[in-house]
Amino acid sequence: MKYAVTGATGHFGQAAITNLLKHVAANEIVAIVRDEVKARKQLPSDIEIRTAAYDHPADLATAFSGIDRLLFVSSIPGREMPRLQQHLNVVNAAQQAGVKFIAYTSYPHANTATSPLSADHRATETAIVKTGIAHSFLRNNWYMENEIGLIQTGLMGKPIVYSAGDGKVGWALERDYAEAAALVLLSDQPKEVYEFTGQPHTFSQLGAVISEMAQKHADVRSISDQDYANYLRDEDGLDSKSIENIIAIQTLIRNGDLNEQSSDLTDVLRRPLPTLAEMVKQVTTEDR
Questions:
Q1: Quick one: 131 and 162 in the same domain?
Q2: 256 in a domain, yes or no?
Q3: Each residue's pLDDT tens digit, 172-215
Q4: Structural domains counted in the chain
Q5: Cα–Cα distances in angstroms (integers) from residue 80 to residues 15, 36, 83, in the given order
Q6: Which domain holds residue 149?
Q7: Which residues partner with 220 through β-bridges?
Q8: CA-CA distance, 237 to 231, in Å (whole number)?
Q9: 72 shares its domain with 37
Q10: What is the DSSP string of 17-34?
Q11: How far apart are CA 118 and CA 127, in angstroms?
Q12: Which of 138, 142, 224, 238 is 20 to 30 Å from 162 by CA-CA measure?
């Protein structure tokens, strides 16, 4: 059996490979990477490394040759080639190479979500279904690592501000999502859809944890989108595009897009997830 992981030099890909190595031999694992030199430095020396970028279909088809089960890690939007086209390249190459199973990292409730962030994922899921390849959609909620800037701000004693109101987020650690992805890839009877999430919390609850860690009372408050945009511009010096993206995420959280109640992640991991405080501590101490 050959297991392949795309985006293997990213944090998610590396964590997935680390977990695969706990269950299968190194010669059964293939890392699909853009930069082989970087991969040789970051990945275990005894796994196979193949070079292919999402925007080079022919290279992908070659890299997927002989692969039985593929962990397809979604790409980052905003590249020269649109993300959806990159994803379609991966799906088509997998079909051409005869891949038998795809586990794809998707978006919460991608089939019904209305957030612009969900569009590429929904289209990718549809494309995978159309190939007829057996698959699992790993609909990951939010990574706690996404909040490292907010956490560090609070630990420095600065105000913790946001505009998501009482919206809840199913934060979990990236390494836990990656471990679950590896376990699904190895599963004999995987589900078609996994709504992976941690216990939902508000930014107010997150702020309280940060305040306690900082051992000082922090100014934690939700403000309007416009006031938050002004704050990000004036206090953090962010550009308009970055501010627009942050406000869009705050809006979808306020609208309940990431307020998910599901045991899928703990069921697959077969263990409880870290508490909110444990996750905050983890992301402030890990080397990224």
A1: no
A2: yes
A3: 999 999 999 999 999 999 999 999 999 999 999 999 999 999 88
A4: 2
A5: 27, 21, 9
A6: 141-172+198-260+272-288
A7: 160
A8: 9
A9: yes
A10: HHHHTTTS-GGGEEEEES
A11: 14
A12: 138
In this structure, the answer to whether residues 157 and 55 fall within a common structural domain is no
Tokens of 69: 């089960």
Q: 207-243, pLDDT tens digit by residue?
A: 999 999 988 777 899 999 999 999 999 988 999 999 9
Instruction: Record the tokens describing residue 154, joined without a space.
Output: 């609070």
Of how many residues is the chain composed? 288
Exposed / middle / buried, residue 18 (Cβ in 10 Å: 0-12, 13-18, 19+): middle
Work out the angle between the directed axes of helices 276-285 and 148-155 (0-180°, nearest 10).
90
Q: Residue 95 corresponds to which amino acid?
A: Q
| 107, 139 Cβ separation under 8 angstroms | yes
As a whole number of angstroms, the distance between CA 142 and CA 170 comes to 6
87 plus 230 within the same structural domain: no
Token reading at 142: 């939010």
> Which CATH number goes with the domain that contains 89?
3.40.50.720
- 80 assigned to some structural domain: yes
Same domain, 147 and 283: yes
Secondary structure element (H or E) that encloses residue 121, with its range:
helix 119-131
Long-range contact list for 266-273, CB < 8 A, 24+ apart? 268/180, 268/183, 268/184, 268/194, 268/196, 269/176, 269/179, 269/180, 269/183, 273/172, 273/173, 273/176, 273/198, 273/199
* Tokens encoding 228: 């938050």
